[in-house]
Amino acid sequence: MLAVSVGCSNGTARVSARDGGGDARVYRDGGPPGSEDGGSSDGDTAGDAGREAGGPDVTEPPVALGPVSTGTDMIGATAADGTALLVVTAGRNSGPFSSAHYEPSSGWTPMTTSQLSTSGWGPITATALSMDAKGDAIFAWVAYEGSANGPKSVSGAARYDHLTGTWVSLGGPDCTNTEGVPPSVPVAVNASGDALLACEGTTVNHYSATTQTWSTETIDPAANGAAIFGLSLSDTGPAVAIYGQVYPSSLATRSADGTWTLSPASPACSQSGYYAAAIDAGGDLLLGLVSAGGSTLAGCYYAAATRTWTGPSSLGSFSPNSGGTLTAALTQTGDGVLVAGRPGLVVYPYVQSSGTWSSPAGLASVTGGVLALGPQGAGLAISGDGVDGGSTQELRVQSYSLTTGWGPASAPIGSSDTSFIALVSPTGTGWAAWIDGGNAFVDRVR
Questions:
Q1: Can you give the residue range of the structural domain that contains 225?
Q2: pLDDT digits (tens, 9 = 90+) for 119-170
Q3: Number of folded domains in the chain?
Q4: How far apart, in whole angstroms, are the C-alpha atoms of residue 233 and residue 214?
Q5: What is the largest CA-CA distance in the chain?
Q6: CATH number at residue 103
Q7: Is the pLDDT of residue 175 over 80?
Q8: Which of 408, 446, 362 has the alpha carbon at shortest distance from 53?
Q9: How far apart are CA 263 and CA 375, in angstroms?
Q10: How far is Cα 128 from Cα 19, in angstroms, rounded to an integer?
Q11: 39 near 348, Cβ under 8 Å?
Q12: 1, 235 in Cβ contact below 8 A?
């Protein structure tokens, strides 16, 4: 199954979200472009040369889904039966969330505001969305309680029933925030509907979709003053947590029965700064990191079978302090990618069988972009070129393959002034979705 991916830096919410169905990826782009190159320029010429030479098969005109309720951040999920789901939240502002659902037989529903009460919610700091094989979904979040200055953060979850088109609250335990700092707590959800919501210290709240109950797990009781920086949960139960006192310095793996085991840390791959990570079903980990104040991206790989680290390998220039985004993904074969974006979009492929990094493939001319990767290494990117002084992005879609690299880009499919995402389903269908002028749009791409 494809890996769960997380990424965060110094309290920043993660920039990727796990979709359901076990095999599709979604990455989200939020905020204005930065001012530095997103990575090495190697491979840019080939990618840019194809931008006007055709592109993926955009099979239908964009569908207008209607207004979103104070929405700025979009995530999505797909399932093997062809269904899909989009959820839009208010980002770091309080307020309800909106959603739209796709059925192959009837198409997209309009964006509707959830029936769940949002009374007492403050700014949302982390979200995750997953879809099971039946087309039902689970949406999990972490938010302040009351206001941005509240003393607690609230972990919650809701399940979407695609037959009735309704959301049902699953509740969620409170997490006391004794130090009064923003609760940038990781959330991970798998395709079975189970969830891990990190709390204070190294405490994790686990939700079982089978029993519909919450339980508490402690990763490392001896880690005084530590916090969880990254959290991933695979479809079959194994998980990885990255934690430490000031920066990610320790790694723990979770077995399917909920037992946490401390793994040997790699000092060279444990640095204060910006990072992204992905885990596969076997507990292997792909890690991209930039040291605090640095501008060089490095890649590390952890093999769960041998409990050994490879790396760090220097990959190229990257500037998270200038608004750059970094995400990670692993395919079901163990190969993976690090994706550096904004501005530009650069993919750094990792080949598991040889333990080496292939040459990066980049799109230097785009202002920003996101990449969704399928289970066999085929992906879909949606990228933007700044117009109107950079406040609006003209959007195009473009295919990517771990074996052949970038294909040509499509003609413009729309524009976005807020955020946009890409999805790839287990069957290979791609979706591009975006927000513009307070309204949501989606386009199907093969």
A1: 4-445
A2: 666 667 777 788 887 788 888 777 766 665 555 666 677 889 888 889 988 8
A3: 1
A4: 16
A5: 58
A6: 2.130.10.10
A7: no
A8: 408
A9: 27
A10: 8
A11: yes
A12: yes
